[in-house]
Amino acid sequence: MAVTGMPRGHALAAPVDLNGTGHYVHWGVIQLSVANLVVIGVMVVVFVLALLLPFPGGRR
Amino acid sequence: MTRRRRERAAVPDPAAFPTRSYDLVKEFTIALVVVALLTAALAAVFSSPDDRPVTLASWSRADGADFTATAAAELGGTSGTAEYGPPYNHTPGAAQKLGPLGLQSAAGVRIPIDTAEDFVLRPLADAPQPPVVRVALAAWAAAPAARQQAWTKAYSDALAKAPGGDPAKVTGGGFGPVPVLVARLLDMARSGALDGQLQAEGKFYETDYTRPLLFLSDGSYLETLARAQHLGGDQWGMMNETGDYPGQAWLWLYTFWYQIEPFKSSGNADALIWGLMALLSLGLMLLPFIPGLRSIPRWTRVHRLIWRSYHRTADQPEGRDNSPG
Amino acid sequence: MTAPHEPASRGWTGAVRRRAVAALPPDKLLPDTQPAYMASWIYVFGVLTLSSLVVVLATGGVLALKGPAWWHVSDAGKYVNSLHLWSVELFMFFMVIHLWGKFFMAAWRGRRALTWITGVVCFLTSIGTAFTGYLVQQNFDSQWIAGQAKDGLNSVGIGAFFNVLDFGQMLMWHIVLLPFVLGLLTAWHILLVRLRGIVPPIGAADPAHGSPAASAPLPAEGEAP
């Protein structure tokens, strides 16, 4: 197989390693990974901020 | 006319409203730069998951007992794939139904798979074999189907009883050529030869992994690894990812149904949930035409927040518009 | 109406051009003004979704240039794969907020139902495209997802034609068919937005049609945000 480029090493290792054991929260029937929970939480926060923050030039 | 009636009247043309300057191209350029930078930063900080795939070789080396039990089931036609039904084979009653609709059966057997032939006998027959294996293959071929099944059943039962499922600790008899065939397949798998054998089948280029993936899925090794990573179907696995990475969170509703009754214990869970999701997707698509649901935005009044600068100038006690030019 | 100096444009080509220009004249296709009521951060999530799609396509394009095996064996490839993954996460993130926003605006009002429908189909197509992407990673994740997903697809007969265990077929869907369809749908969706204009606020009366109040003096700041 002709694969070119820099071989895989540790030159570009990620500063935050997410490859360890996953973290999960259990709440009754709900089982959610902390990573997904963070993504969904940030989504809701960004949505609410988009509704509340004043838009530049919006006030005339 | 009441205010409510007037609100439901025809939506006015946006061109009739006062305007403000708005640079769409500048907005797009800024958005593109922001997203590109955000992507570059997230990729640099968090990288991406890439757990090594399981091969028939790594499976057979790590858990020879599971491989042996699976190979015996493939030979005897009692594995998950062997009894799957369409699209792989004809197994009476195996296909799922969506109420009266048998879509799985209607699609037919379009990817035919004979597990004994495709996963065990052909890979063995296609490779050079020692005399004992050639004799075993001939004995298997000469036996009637009922005898073959008696052999594999006896051997599978004996494996289940043996400590750790270890083939070396199997006691009893009546297995015919099965132990020899399965042991030889294990050797081939451990050497890495079986990965190539299941793939190639006389071809050189290959892009279809249906057979080796089905073989792998019939064992319990792959599932054990997946469950340890919270990827099981009853663990909301569809929206999860290996390690601590976010997964396909947008599949939350689809995977949710698998966690609750009546789907959880239904033999038709897949078909029922696919039918339900198709219906819900259609509902989302046709939301503008569904009375009640389409009025939720009016009731929730989140829109007052979004258009607060408009309402600041347009609202009067009568609720009529007279925003400034 | 054809301007007097414009040469008579006949035939199919002329007819298509006349209709296209009449429906979307340049200043409607790329306007430099918007209705004053378009003043909220919620409006930027459409363009953020589109920008993310551009980054997804660009990073996917680099992965395609180098071939499917590259990112498993190269540090640079791994980084490009990470760019592709995170741009997809951002794409879905922004698209869902865009969907929430448009829902609470009831943005399908005023002959805009097709805009909503094309948007929902874009969302569903994106889920399918992301799913085929997960299938062609050639790692443990792909193996497990393929093994699980086949049951759902087989149960309704789709699996007989759309085989998630066939890497070659899934790669083609992921890098050719689905992006092509998503691109077309996105273009259609955006042209519909430009064609119909930004949906007016719920309950807004037409300022052009004089109601008695239209000529009334400006009210004081009526409502605090």
Task: Throw out a few tags for this protein.
heterotrimer, B: 325 residues, mainly alpha, 53% helix, 1% strand, C: 225 residues, 2 domains, elongated
Task: Describe the structure in your own words.
The complex is a heterotrimer of chains A (60), B (325) and C (225). Chain A has 1 helix and 2 strands, in the order ββα. Chain A has one helix spanning 34-52; strands at residues 24-27, 30-33. In chain A, a hairpin with a 2-residue loop joins β1 and β2. The longest helix of chain A is centred in the C-terminal third of the chain and has 19 residues, at 34-52. Chain A is flat. Chain A starts with 23 loop residues before the first strand and ends in an 8-residue tail after the last helix. Chain B is built from 17 helices and 1 strand. By secondary structure, chain B is an all-alpha fold. Chain B starts with a helix and ends in an 11-residue tail after the last helix. The relative contact order of chain C is 0.10. The model of chain C is unreliable at 211-225 (pLDDT under 50). Classes of the chains: A alpha+beta (60), B mainly alpha (325), C mainly alpha (225). At the B-C interface, β1, α2, α5, α11 and α12 of B face β1, α3, α5, α6 and α7 of C.
Instruction: State Rg of chain C.
Output: 23 Å
Binned, the helix content of chain B reads: 40-55%
Q: Please name the two chains that share the biggest interface, counting residues whose Cβ lies under 8 Å from a Cβ on the partner chain.
A: B-C, 115 and 110 residues
Q: Kindly, what is the distance between the CA atoms of the first and last residues of chain B, rounded to a whole number of angstroms?
A: 27 Å
Helix vs. strand class of chain C: mainly alpha
Largest sheet of chain C: none
